[in-house]
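Hallway conversation turned thread

IA: we were arguing at lunch whether anyone had actually written out Pseudouridine synthase end to end. Turns out nobody had. So, for the record, here is the sequence (331 residues) and right after it the structure tokens. Reply here if something looks off.
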Amino acid sequence: MAADVSAVETRTVGEDEGELRLDRWFKRHYPKLPYGQLAKLLRTGQVRVDGRRAKPNQRVQPGQTVRVPPLPQSSGDGGGATAQPVTEADRTAFAQAILYDDPDVLAINKPHGLASQGGTHVQRSVDALAAAHVGADAERPRLVHRLDKDTSGVLLLARTAGAAAKLGENLKAEGTEKVYWAITAARPPRRHGRIEVPLAKRKRGGGEKMGYAEDGKHALTLYREIAHTPDGIAWLALIPKTGRTHQLRAHLAHVGAPILADGKYGGRSAYPEHILPDKLHLHARRLAVAHPADGTTLRLTAPLPEHMAETFEQLGFDPAAGDDVLPHHQA
């Protein structure tokens, strides 16, 4: 019987996954898939990278697409919900989230709670919605970086393979700037500075989280406090100079300033008694990057999500006052 083509996944290599061997990329996303089965799928051409046959030791690059054929449920990254059909309401919401669109680049203000990529736990993703937005006859947009499901803000996609490769390079270049806003449950030790703490994955129970490790990967975050309340709630501007998983969340928790509602990294301290945050307060506010076609600087700004806008109003923070406040690269 022919394989169920509807179960084929197309996943995009993330910005932080460049130079991973393809077999290690699969190990990250499909930890229960046996190597022998992966090797067979590669030999028979069922796994492809950017539409081409691939080998286990091939190095993947940000923005490339990996075709993943139907796998046994036990081989994936867990059971659970499968992708749902894209509804008209989904299409409308996605169109309303678009910040910029041209033949090379598509940028959206990703909502809180929407996954960047599809997977066995994921009902809806930016990947699927972007594909539905451009239609079946157009080239599928490719994510060139990712945001956590619970992080909102500027998310960049490339409309072509060439644009994806160029944007992947440009995002690493000097002059590219990613600015995040966070509301934290406590103030950092200093009003501005740098958090340079190596990070590695730590297994806790059935899950994983990032944490300090002497032999972990180098991770650097610049921060500056924009405002604070008398009881110590702070509004921070953040620039991640490296792209580690959960970097901003882990770094802020490490210095005693966990992001509001980040129970994974802040525990109970992420939920101050006098306010009732129920969603993570981390937002990719701005992105400046060279356009892949002509090199001009593309500047994108994402309005705050509703839950953060409500918190700003409750705390008396004015979003208009924050865009000129940036961490110093020499901090």
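OS: looked through it. Residues 5-75 form a domain with the Structural Genomics Hypothetical 15.5 Kd Protein In mrcA-pckA Intergenic Region; Chain A fold (CATH 3.10.290.10).
IA: good, adding that to the notes. Residues 1-6, 77-81 have pLDDT under 50 and may be disordered.
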